Amino acid sequence: SLPNPTAPRTDRLVNLSARAIVDPTHPLSAGFVVAGTATKSLVLRGIGPALASYGVANPLAHPQITLVSTSGATLAVNAGWGGASALATAFSQVGAFPLPANSADSAVVEQLSPGLYTLRVTDGTADAGGAALAEVYDASIDPLGQSQKLVNLSALGQAGAGTSALIGGFVVAGNEPKSVLIRGVGPALAPFGVTGVLSN
User: Fold this and answer.
1) DSSP secondary structure code for residue 145 in this structure
2) Mean pLDDT for the chain?
3) How many other CB atoms are found less than 10 A from the CB of residue 172?
């Protein structure tokens, strides 16, 4: 059947993620934009140890997350989620996979005003590095009905072949298909001062 033309569109991006190899000199940065006119609740996570349960080799042992505003201000830092029950409940509500209570994975819940943000995942103990996942979840009570929404994800990190590939993931929810623009940018990063860009 055809969509109801009078029903409001609810197609939204509700989860954004990026996986890459992180080491002391190569963080994983996930940028995102909150659009709208009011604050949005978000679950932000930096996953390392918990990736081992999903067959990911060499996970980052001590991921640390830092949330930064577009002005460069640090808004939140976490280096171990601590098994907090409120966070575990938030993971369940947004459909995020659970974390062991004693894991060194990192997570926070933040209320963010419309704007541009960067979630950085770094090697919290400057050890040997490993695979890490940066995650952004819409944790609003009604993510499909609110005017504020996630509208952009960009990930900057090491990009290699095979298991060293930089991987971006996202979830589209709602009652209609969503048109998305997907880009893989390498050479065009050079004018912005990024070194070691991927040539192809």
Assistant:
1) T
2) 89
3) 13
Contact 131, 19 (CB under 8 A): yes
* Structure tokens that stand for 161 in this block: 């072949």
Per-residue pLDDT, averaged over 58-82, amounts to 96
- The predicted model scores a pTM of 0.89
The predicted structure's pLDDT at residue 174: 81
Cα–Cα distance, 180 to 75 (Å, whole number): 29
**Whole-number Å distance between alpha carbons of 193 and 90:** 38
Check the CA dihedral 65-168-31-155 and report its sign. Answer: positive
Nearest-angstrom CA–CA distance, 155 and 119: 9
Query: Which of 26, 24, 78 minimizes the C-alpha distance to 47?
Result: 78
Buried b (16+ CB within 10 A) or exposed e, 73-106: eeeeebbbbeeeeebbebbeebebeebeeebbbb
Is the pLDDT at 181 greater than 80, yes or no? yes
Handedness of CA 75, 113, 155, 16 (dihedral sign): positive
Of 133, 158, 162, 136, the residue nearest 149 (C-alpha): 136
Q: Tokens in use for 81?
A: 């989620």
Q: Give the number of other CB atoms < 10 A from CB of residue 196.
A: 11
Rounded-to-integer distance, Cα 81 and Cα 103, Å: 8
CA distance to 25, 80, 159, per residue, from 185 (Å): 20, 32, 11
